[in-house]
Amino acid sequence: MKTIKMVSMSLFLGLLLMFSAKVRAQDPVKVAPNIYKRVVLENDKVRVMEVEIAPNDTVPWHSHPDHFIYALTDGKLEITAKGAAPAVSEVKAGDAMFIEATTHMARNIGGTTVKLLVTELKNSKKMMPHKAKKTM
Fold first, then answer.
1. CB of 49 within 8 A of CB of 41?
2. pTM above 0.85?
3. Which helix (H) or strand (E) holds 102?
4. Dihedral sign for Cα atoms in the order 4, 10, 13, 15
5. What is the pLDDT of residues 11-48, one digit of tens each?
6. Does residue 91 surpass a pLDDT of 80?
């Protein structure tokens, strides 16, 4: 009887871990299609997404590779990265931010809809130093 309980518990925990890992690594367009409005551009180098987060909306856990954000409007977001405490970020229209690969969630805690362009970098590699050409 103990063996059956232990096997059942092991299976349950394994499935739970598998499911939670899968949830943490979700594509934002799939987990929040009401917020990630559309993919503006996608090719083998980048994916650019139009994002609108209404007041009190929450973007569920999702992941991004290295990416940058351009704010189209002002707003106030609470962002929680995996393993970290929530942090408040006030964005202003015209702000640009680079963010390394992350898994996080976000919530609009302000009174206005936050509009962003999010650009994910695909296959990002370390930049090679530029070799200066000698001139004579």
1. no
2. no
3. strand 102-108
4. negative
5. 444 444 444 444 446 999 999 999 999 999 999 999 99
6. yes
60 C-beta neighbours (distance < 10 Å), count? 12
pLDDT, tens digit (0-9, with 9 covering 90-100), for 99-118: 999 999 999 999 999 999 99
**Spatial CB neighbours of 82, under 8 Å, sequence gap ≥ 6:** 24, 61, 102, 103, 104
DSSP state of 62: E
> Which tokens is 105 given?
């969630």
Nearest to 20 by CA among 32, 9, 12: 12
**For residue 120, how many C-alpha atoms fall within 13 Å in the half-sphere facing its CB?**
22
Tokens of 49: 């997404």
Q: How many CB atoms lie within 10 A of CB 72?
A: 17
**DSSP code at position 122:** S
Q: Which two tokens stand for residue 90?
A: 């006030």
Length of the chain as a residue count: 136
